[in-house]
Each structure stands twice: as structure tokens, then as C-alpha cells.
Amino acid sequence: MKKFIAVIALVTASTYSFAQDVDRLIQQPEVERIIKTLSADDMQGRATFTPGIEKAAKFIENEFKTIGLTPLEGASGFRQSFSMVKSTPVSTSVSINDVAVPADHIATFSATPINWQGTGAEIAQVTANMDLQNDFRKFLGGDKARLVIVDPKFETFFKRLSAFAMRGNTTAKDAPVQAPVVFVLGSFDDVKSYKVKYDVQNAEMPLFNVAGMLPGKSKAKEYVIFSGHYDHLGIIKPMDGDSIANGADDDATGTTAVITLAKYFKRLNNNERTLIFVAFTAEEIGGYGSQYFSKHVSADQTVAMFNIEMIGKASKFGENSAFITGFERSDFGPILQKNLEGTAFKFYPDPYPQQQLFYRSDNATLARLGVPAHSISTDQIDTDKLYHSVKDEFSSLDVSNIVATIKAIALSSRTIVSGQDTPTRVAKLER
Fold first, then answer.
1. Residues 184 and 225 occupy one common structural domain
2. Is 171 found in the same domain as 113?
């Protein structure tokens, strides 16, 4: 019993010591400064391929340089640059049974022009008993051209889908051309004839993640990744005179956490494993930044990934809490919680399994390769009315919640950073 009490006392003292470091090195004014900068109007919502995201990238680069991070192996700077082909719709017209379909009832996904005159596409239906929000991607990416008729029940989501399509499509330069898919909202029980005319403009465009690292000491070939995405939607449909989707919570909070953690671990200077800090681009248009990054880091050498996504408000579990996607897929969560013993903070399993969040964020590509790559969030996604709106501004955030969550990540990751704990791998290619 005396030995047991002594061990508990040692663990408690150790946690207390680390907590003192966290409280001293992670402070609210600095967190506020970073979020305010990234979510300011002059960043124009940080949309991919815009001057706003260029400005955000320069800011993050400067933060990494000031902190004293080093570029990734083989890189000369903090930008991880690549290019994609952006397809921008020029014009679209659809008629079914000789009746013209309103423009806002059409969502076209194609990198090539379309000229269907009664033939050329397979007809598919999204009926009222289906789930368009979760199922629409199943119609994309195949080898069959499709005209998909969507039940009017889905009008609310379809408006988002149509707006998403109008922003255009982005693909890798060497990716195979996907068959075109056209979604049409309306009641058409018997499609006897159809005409679709679509024109598109393609251009090669630059993209860039911003990444730096702290080389490890005794386990330099083992990587721990801290990530978030710094892109957002940019300029969208005005609401109350405001058209800038600032993306304060989504995901300036996550990017702020990455920068803050980089500074924290640099000042501690005791990481045995190599730590990689990366702000991903193009999450909002398909996760292309994290996909590119995952091809240039060894999955077998990556022992864990902390992807931080929307920590701007208290979770459904209350203050001092966050959830971890894919909690049941590895012992990543239990390790983090063990390191928080003696504190008020607690990590929970993802309370929104129906949203399939584990494979919907920037952790997904490495997770499919077997890495215990998980996203940490506090977003109440089922009730968040500010998500992807112009109202997602700094003034809507609970900064104390953000600071508490960043401190919890810093504290809970310490045995993974030190090499003491190695989370179990997740099943490769699991879907």
C-alpha cells in the first residue's frame, strides 16, 4: 500500500510539474493574437487560390521561423508546394422532359465539358428515404456518367451542394479524369428525355501546406504530427451585409493550436521523437493538402497524429472536455487521458458517429495507412449554426475554452512526444 501511494504521489507530482510548464508557456493573450490575425477580414476568408490564403501562409511561415522550427527534410523553406488543376464552371443548362431546370436546382461535378442529348448518362435517384448528405459522394468518382435526380425533400442541403459545385472542382494533375455527375433537384418520376450542356475552364493552380519540425533527440526517425487546416471558404453569399466567411473556429482555432504547440515544445526542448507541425491547405475543397503531405511522410515512421479541428467553443460534454474521432480504433485516447490524471480535463469518444468524422478530416489519409491519426474537436456539430457561415468570427469564440484545450493537448501528448508511449496502429484501409 505504501508503494502504491508513493507511485500515485509521483504521478501526481509529475503531472503538476508539467501543468506548471503548460500554464507558464501557453497563455491566452498570445492565443488571441494568432486567432485574431488568421480570422481578420483582411485574410478574406482564406479561400484556396486567393490572395487571402497567400497572406495567411506568409503569417504562418513567419510564426514558424520566429519560433525556430526547421523545414521538413529536403525542403528549403516552410512551404510544401504542389499544384492542382482547378475546373471552374462557365455555363450550365439542364432540361428534363423538355422542361428547363432552374439554375439553383443543378449541381454539376465535371472537369470536362458535357453535351448530353438524351444519351450519355446513367439515370440515378436519391429518394426521400435516402441520406443525401452522407451518400452524395458515392455518386462521384466512378467511371459512369450520371444524371442524379434528387427528391425535393433535400432542398436545404441541395442549396449547399449547388453552391459547392459552383466553386468548381480541384484534382491532382496526374489524376485520372472522373466521369461527370450532374445532380438535379426535383420530382421526375419518369425521365423520358434530358439535355445537359455544360462548359468548364481548367487551369493549373499552386497550393501549399506550411510545415516545420523540431528534430527528435534519441528517436529522430519516429514522427509525431500536430496539424490543422488554415484554409476556409473565402467570400460567400452576403448575410446582414457581411460576405466574408472568416473561419475563426473552422479552423483558425486548430491552426492557432498548432502554432502555439510548436512554440511550447520548442521552449521545452525535450522531445525525443521528431515533431512535425503542419497547417494544411485545401481541406474545404477535398483535403488535398493532407493527401499530398501524406505521400511525403513515412506512415510507418509516424507514431501518432494530433489533428486539431474546431476547438472554439465548449463541447457537448461541457467545459474542460473535447472528443476524439475514431476513439475506439486505437489506444491513442486512453494514453492521452492517462496523462491528464489529476487535471479537470477529459477526452471523450466522438459523440457524432453518424457524421463519420474520422474519415472526413485531414487525419483520414494517414489513418487509412495505419497511423493512429485522430482529430480532436469540441464542435457541437449537430447544433452549430455558425458553421460555414459569415458569423464564424472571433467574437463568437470562447477563447478560454481554446486555451484549455491546447493546454490539454500539450499535457496529454507528453509521453508520446517523449517516446514512452506508442499508440496502437489502426486498421489499414478501414472504411
1. no
2. yes
Note the pTM of the prediction, 2 decimals: 0.84
Each residue of 126-180: pLDDT tens digit? 999 998 887 887 888 778 899 999 999 999 999 989 988 988 888 877 778 889 9
Same domain, 57 and 99: no
SS in 3 state form for 144-160?
A: CCEEEEECHHHHHHHHH
Structural domain boundaries, residue 180: 87-202
Task: Give the domain CATH number at 238.
Answer: 3.40.630.10
Do 309 and 373 belong to one domain?
yes
Number of domains in the chain: 2
Kindly state whether residues 238 and 275 are assigned to the same domain.
Answer: yes
Determine the average pLDDT of the residues in 272-291: 96
Q: Say whether both 272 and 406 belong to one domain.
A: yes
pLDDT above 90 covers a percentage of the chain that reads 83
